[in-house]
Amino acid sequence: MITLTTLREAPIVLNAILIEAVRSTPDTTIQLVGGQTYVVKETLEEVKAATIDFYRQVGLTGLNSARRLEDGRRKEEE
Predict the structure, then answer these.
(1) CB under 8 Å, gap of 24 or more: what pairs does 11-16 form?
(2) Three-state SS string across the chain, please?
(3) What residues contact residue 63 under an 8 Å CB cut-off, 6+ apart?
(4) Which residues contact 75 (CB under 8 A, 6 or more apart)?
(5) Keywords, A to Z (predicted)?
(6) How far apart are CA 70 and CA 30, in angstroms?
(7) pTM for the full model?
(8) Do 51 and 19 form a contact (C-beta atoms < 8 A)?
(9) In this prediction, what percent of the chain has a pLDDT beyond 70?
(10) Cα 53 to Cα 30, 40, 71, distances in angstroms
(11) Which of 25, 31, 43, 46 has the smallest number of CB atoms closer than 10 Å to its CB?
C-alpha cells in the first residue's frame, strides 16, 4: 500500500499492485485495474518511487531481472 494526498489535502492509501496507469495531465491521475481513478498532489515521479519502494518491501523487485537472467542462460545453452 502507498499513501498519497488528494487535491483536498486528504491522505489516501492505494494498493500499488492494482495501479494500471499513472498520468500527469497536468495533475497526477492514477487509474486502477478496476477502472477507478484518483487525482493526487504527488508528481508522477513521486508515485513511481513510492510504488517501487512498496514492491521492494513486499519482495516483488528483481523478479523480471531473475527471469531475464534465466532466459539468457537458456539461450546460451541452445
Answers:
(1) 12/38, 12/40, 14/38, 16/50, 16/51, 16/54, 16/55
(2) CEEEEECCCCEEEECHHHEEEEEECCCEEEEECCCCEEEECCCHHHHHHHHHHHHHHCCCCCHHHHHHHHHHHHHHHC
(3) none
(4) none
(5) Cell projection, Cilium, Flagellum
(6) 33
(7) 0.75
(8) yes
(9) 78
(10) 17, 18, 26
(11) 25
